[in-house]
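Input record (Table S2, row 514):
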Amino acid sequence: MPQVLGLDASTQSCSAIIIDTDLASVVAEASINFGECLPQYKAPSGFIPGGADGEVSSDPRMWIDALELLLEKLKDQCDLSKIQAISGAGQQHGSVYLNDNWEDTLGALSATKSLTEQIEKCFSKDTSPIWMDTSTSEECLEIAAATGGDAAVCAKSGSIAIERFTGPQIRRFYKNDPDGYAQTARIHLVSSFICSLLCGSDVPIDTGDGAGMNLLNIQTWDWDPDLLRATAPELGKRLPKVVSGNTKAGEISQYFVQKYGFSTGTPITVFTGDNPSSLVGMGASKAGKLVISLGTSDTFFAAMPEVVADPQGCGHVFGNPSAGSMSLQCFVNGSLAREAVKDKFSYDWDQFTTAIDQTPAGNDGNIMVPFFRPEISPPIDLDAPILKGNESFEAWNEADAAIRACVEGQFINMKLRTNWMQLQPEVIYLTGGASKNDAIAQVVADVFQAQVQRLAVSGSVALGAALRAAYNTFSLPLNQLEAIFCQPETGSTVQPKAAIDTYIEAEQIFSDLL
Ligand code: ADP
Ligand code: XUL
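Output record (adenosine-5'-diphosphate complex):
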């Protein structure tokens, strides 16, 4: 009975799923929320609050501790020696900077000490910038100028130079701390960092996550010499190799065998980014399905038969870890914006849901641009929402209308920003922490005028990792695995209820407000 482990190292938590591919069942699921389980890192939402000049970073030791807590939890639930394949995914764009102790330390991990204790001496930068960082506008301009402009960077890397992408982050580190950069022997993404820990060796980056760096050429699927040069000196030698998502990265290190009871030799498939992994976990790895993920960020993505560029410059092309490419649009003001409006009125999620249920689609013309922090789709530097409607609504005196306006505003914006993908969805597949909320799903169905489905297994990132590991290790066809594990939850389908023209005027007013 082959059991397979899928890991998800996300913004707010580290989660896992173990599936049995013979029994077609989920054996175990577990999650460690960083804010709740590791309060010593002072990162209630997974990142260190209050960074200056748009800086948003996390302590990489928190991710390592969470991995250990997670494996401890799984070990109590099941026998980890039965696992025969492993893969995983990480929040995209986040980077980890390591000095020349890294490779030797990885190869000599002792199970009598904690991982953090041993890896601590390997960091050449204490903190890791993550995808919410907006501090690198200057570096984006410099990279674009050195490469021939936005269009040239986009043609090469699938995205214009974008603040949160890893290349601009690396350039900022190099400029602000040249000594730190000089001491950096290796730069990893969150995904390849965690995968390296598990393998006890330095592993490659896959094309799905690598394309989120403004460094990978999406024609050759290898590091682009011009982009490397435009970003920082001698960068190529500091980056791991790039491989396709169907590559074995290594085998589980003895550290995890001795400490958690894994079997020696368990193969590990290269990790990917959380969104590319979710594409597989939603059963959407072949073109034709559209996914909206409502995690910390909201993302909108689909496998693409051919690469189409976003004329507005905020969309991205990533490698599809199961072959080909995918398009993606990311919205920073996702779950944390919904939480901000919920907390403003001291509501819990039930009251938030009732507020949406009790207000009409179209919200009597009350509209919100729901950005509580700088947004990237579209790029706009707001730190509070814009409200347009009746006087009492605009003064934040109508709690229920404000909540509906926030959610409607998020999906009106999403619809406007993703027109470039030219997808006319009949069904939208919803995933991520907020997807279980029926009232939010109803707003998605109404704004997009499409049926919304949720899958029985909710953690599509971890599930995608497990499916990739099974596909790569046992050669089980992905479509066969998807047919088993990516089924819609019974009774979870949501049909549009609002009239087809409900949001036409709202879309126009929303556009005019930006
Ligand atoms: P990530 O993978 O980015 O760490 P998740 O996909 O786990 O995030 O989603 C976490 C988010 O889900 C939380 O920030 C929270 O706002 C949201 N969430 C949890 N429960 C609900 C609910 N009932 N309704 C709406 N949103 C919810
Ligand atoms: C995608 C993006 C986020 C992160 C965190 O480009 O920035 O979705 O992957 O989930």
